[in-house]
Design goal:
The structure holds 2 protein chains of 2 kinds. By secondary structure, chain A is of the alpha+beta class. Chain A has 2 domains: 33 residues, no CATH class; 56 residues. Helices cover 47% and strands 31% of the residues of chain A. Chain A is built from 3 helices and 2 strands, in the order αααββ. Chain A has a two-stranded antiparallel sheet with strand order 1-2. Chain A is rod-shaped, with a radius of gyration of 23 Å. The termini of chain A are far apart. The relative contact order of chain A is 0.12. By secondary structure, chain B is of the alpha/beta class. Chain B has one domain: P-loop containing nucleotide triphosphate hydrolases (Rossmann fold), CATH 3.40.50. Chain B has 12 helices and 8 strands. Chain B has an 8-stranded mixed beta sheet with strand order 3-4-2-5-1-6-7-8, with helices on both faces. In chain B, β3 and β4 form a beta hairpin. The longest helix of chain B is centred in the middle third of the chain and has 16 residues. The termini of chain B are far apart. The chains are: A alpha+beta, B alpha/beta.
Chain lengths: 90, 266
Amino acid sequence: MNLRALLAALTGRQPSKEVAKERLRLVLVHDRASVAPEFLDKIKEEMIAVISKYMEIDESNTVINMHHAEGTAVLEANLAVKKIKRSVNT
Amino acid sequence: MGEVIVITSGKGGVGKTTTTANLGVGLVLAKKKVVLIDADIGLRNLDVVMGLENRIVYDLVDVVEGHCRVKQALIRDKRFENLFLLPAAQTRDKNAVSPEQMKKLSLELKEEYDFILVDCPAGIEQGFRNAIAGADRALIVTTPEVSAVRDADRIIGLLEAAEIKTFHLIINRLRPEMVKRGDMLDIDDILEILAIDLIGVIPDDEKIIISTNRGEQVAANANDSPAGKAYTNIVRRLLGETVPIMDFYQNQSFFSRLKKFIGLGG
């Protein structure tokens, strides 16, 4: 670290390169995580079809999205279950 | 059998055309037969960069539509007899060519030439899809700026999706003095963010503008400019040689290091 960087650190003002790097990192996390909405709709449709065999799903209360957390992509699905079919236990 | 290399970037104005022209010259100086294809239909520029704008008779669209044979459309360079240009059409749009036609043309040219360099248009639409269709490998050009690096990341994703397996990064217009004072992304910063292999770094060099003004390439006289030398190094790496990346931060005297420590630049 040179004196200028040290001064920058002390005054809380980062060198512009560090700002650029940080902004890039954030924007790329977002860019890389964004998936076409049609693609997610298709996954949602098929998931509901599979799960509906066993449970009754409230489709209007179903949310599916994709995001990044700690370096990995996470596919998050929240499905509201109306009731579990009796036949599952038999 | 030759190799088709597409030079791409996503963002416009980062130096794709200049890079295409210089790598072409460098490869010819390394005794290769080279065709440069300008795939930027409607906005052709490789012809003026090469200084061949007055010699165009037929263009890429004429070739794919069968109005002429490939040989008739290829323009021989003024200085290098093994360097050819296939210019883009200026009065058509990007839909005048299809990816299938580009693949067919690439296969035909590979029979006779060692390298086919395709100068890709900016953007990620049809023009980009055409340009990468016949490519065996890709070179992604970026500059040390947030917008250019971001677009490069997007392009890498699209190349992966298109199953182009070999691609490398070229960092263009690096300004070592700005990097030194912490005001420009450094080579390592960009590589860390993009996680891709580097094939070369071109320093910002006013000789590029001077030679482009004349329709000449810095790679023709590699020892006259840092950029010319850097392009020649990329050519050697393309041909399989191991050449270290230039040290842009060398020649630091004790005094300049002292100045740097105090923060007076240098």
